[in-house]
Specification:
The complex is a heterodimer of chains A (about 525) and B (about 375).
Chain A (H helix, E strand, L loop, with lengths): L25 H9 L8 H4 L20 H18 L20 H4 L10 H16 L7 E11 L6 E10 L8 E7 H15 L14 H9 L4 H23 L1 H4 L2 H8 L14 H19 L7 H51 L4 H78 L3 H77 L1
Antiparallel strand pairs in A: 1-2, 2-3
Helix pairs in contact in A: 3-5, 7-8, 12-13, 13-14
Chain B lengths: L4 H4 L5 E4 L2 E4 L4 E8 L2 E9 L6 E7 H12 L27 H8 L9 H16 L8 H7 L9 H18 L7 H47 L7 H72 L2 H75 L1
Antiparallel strand pairs in B: 1-2, 3-4, 4-5
Helix pairs in contact in B: 7-8, 8-9
The chains are: A mainly alpha (about 525), B mainly alpha (about 375).
Membrane topology (chain A): Peripheral membrane protein
Family (chain A): Belongs to the sorting nexin family.
Main location (chain A): other
Amino acid sequence: MAAERDPPPAGSVGHADLREVEDGEDLFVSTASTLESSPSSPEPASLPVEDVGPSSNGPKPAEILLDDDQEDLFAEATEEVSLDSPEREPILSDGPSPAITPVTPTALIAPRAEPNVIMVSGMFEQSLDELEEEAAGDSFDIQISVSDPEKVGDGMNAYMAYKVTTKTSLTVFSRNDFSVKRRFSDFLGLHSKLASKYMHIGYIVPPAPEKSIVGMTKVKVGKEDLSSTEFVEKRRSALERYLMRTVKHPVLLQDPDVLQFLESSELPRAVSTQALSGAGILRMVNRAADAVNRMTIKMNEADVWFEEKQQQFENLDQQLRKLHGSVEALVCHRKELSVNTASFARSAAMLGNSEDHTALSRALSQLAEVEEKIDQLHQEQAYADFYLFSELLGDYVRLITAVKAVFENRMKTWSKWQDAQLMLQKKREAESKLQFTNKPDKLQQAKDEIKEEIEEWEAKVQQGERDFEQISKTIRKEVGRFEKQRVNDFKVAIIKYLESLVQTQQQVWRESDWAAL
Amino acid sequence: MVVSVSEMMDDAPEVSVSGFNLSVSSIKVTEAIKKENSLVFVVGAQEFPSKKQHFVDRKFEDFEWLQQCLLMPDGIPGLQGIIFPPLPAKPCAFQSNTQEKMIKQLGLLGLDDDWKTYCMALEMYLQLVVSHTTLGKNQVLRSFFTQTQGPGGQAGRKGILNRLSQALEEIKKENHQDVDEFFRNERASNSSLVRLTKATTERLIAVVRTQQNIALACGHFSTTLHLGVGPDEDPAAKTFSKLSLKLSEIIIIVKKNFECVAENNLNILGLGLDLVSRYEESEKEMLFRRTCKLVELEQNSKNLEKAKPAKKANMEEIKKASEKEFRHISDIARLEIQKLHRVRVEVFQQCLTSWCEKQLHAARETSSILSQHLRAFKQLDSTE
């Protein structure tokens, strides 16, 4: 069973032949080749800020390759799919989006599902076939960028439309290069669809950026000041990261909703994501119900691994929150510093201007002012960089919330399993009761019925549990790897930034030194 | 010290005070020791040519006394035309020492917790006094530098009285029209300069404080990173821990860089600005004294015209005396002002040059350390 087999530490397998670096750029070659199969983020290239360091890339980063891992995951998936497909509930979201909550308890305990074409599993098989056909030829190559935020409309009905551009060579898309216009609620709609489909079977669906009423109102009202442009910028980059994370997940990438989102020019308006709608209230109610559940369900944790993992995640969550706080403080100070440096520069300039006694003196003062200005520019750069750090940490904090939700779902599944077992027992008792009543004609029929039901229940739930566990295991590893890669890339980025910052500073000083002599 | 006073002054580096010669460059205020609620400064000087060293403990009151004594002697014509080297403000009492208060009291000099900057300012003051052609000849200097017992205290009260009356008169006389164009211009430019330099100094204070804050925040950040590191068996978590540690090292480097930059800002640029600013205030005071003299002169002239013939001779003498004084003051003032301009330029030049050098040096160092880390990091990455 796939569960027993660990996905091979991806670094080992056939890495050498996966190199496909377009730009031969040193920095990215090394990072690309040292990547484990999970894709590293092409984030550095899609950062809005000016490019990293003197050896900066062009807009296209090196291609990132994911062959092995995809195959591994899908190999596992095949086995699960073949076992489950008749029983798997049709948790589709074609047509109008269903209720938003990740789990609607009733749906899970639906009776035997129709053997409809389950698009999900169907997709698995189909894409797996595709993959197998193209073997090592197809690389995980997709780059999504979110750009050009535009204000559409006026007054309180205005919204920002973002252009989503996809560049890819994956065969699952019809074209290689396309873009569509989307608004924020579209993103939320996508997330809710994905969540309803995948969360309760154990996939960690990346959380969408948060709604911000204050921020949006400012934008709507048309205030063109620093904070609203900042807000739009933050949102834009958050959306970009969200999409990239979503498509990096091999299962989510194949989802028709995702494809539709990226490709089709018109998307049905996701009304149910509005804060004050009926669906919103339903969500709140469900969240409350979840909270109660959390307190009442006591699970006998059979698997030590899960217990550890949960603990780890708790710790990680706390840690990340603290870090996030620290980085935010740092960002704050940086902002302050840039403001202060600017005003110092102004003062120095004024001083220089009033000093017309000696031309030399004035020149010196002006020099001081110029230097301060450049210094301030640097501060802004460094601040932007740190702010990215804090955004990343924030993202991860939210991702962990999603992970926790997944764990909770597991608990729910377990409790359902227990319930099912109870039912099973009851049925068995009923069966044995029947045996003692002397109605032989009905007996056999009843017996058979019950037996069937019993078996079916047991099997179903057991399997749900198992495959769930397995999936979350895989995903957990994924998450760990992602983390590592991200922090990795970030460090490199931050270092390069600092380096370039310092180097440019050097040049400035050198010039000023020379001038002062 | 960064700003070298002896290079700035035209005067000979060694000044003779009737047999008591001091080598200006040897004057040092080395440390500030906290003794029972007040600061004691260790003042050192070396005699020329005997090379005899003197080390004395001085409190701030002693410095104030010195300043008063320099102002007092009447024998020297036009003493009031001298722009006195400025003394830093008095350090406040210790119990309620928050940074806010210190900055309010001492301006830029309050930013340094170690009092290092303050000592440097005192040092400069002494050097400036000793190297001044006229002031350097004052006898009190000898006792200041050699006597073990601090002179302190007596002149304090006088100082306060002086200040009070001065404040009242200032309001009346400040805008008095000047007879001489040179001085008129000078007064105008001086007042604006005082304002601007003060503003610039304040902004610099803000910058340095923020830089200090950033350094602190970096420290917090790196500590938090450390907290998350624990024994991990999971390889992913292990790597994450390693990364955290590395990142924390880097942040510490950033922190050190900031501290260094802030220090440079403070000790070099800040000191220079502070000195210039206080000098300008001193100039303002001198100009004010001169204006007072002018008012007095005009008053005397008026009196002379109004005077009855009996008193006329007397009045005439008084008028002549004040006229002579006024002329003396103006002459000396002119010289001093020109010297001040030059000094200003030189101070700025030196400041900026050495500031550039230091910042450049710091930047280079940080850059090389960071590149090292970057390389090591890339290697680490490739081995995994």
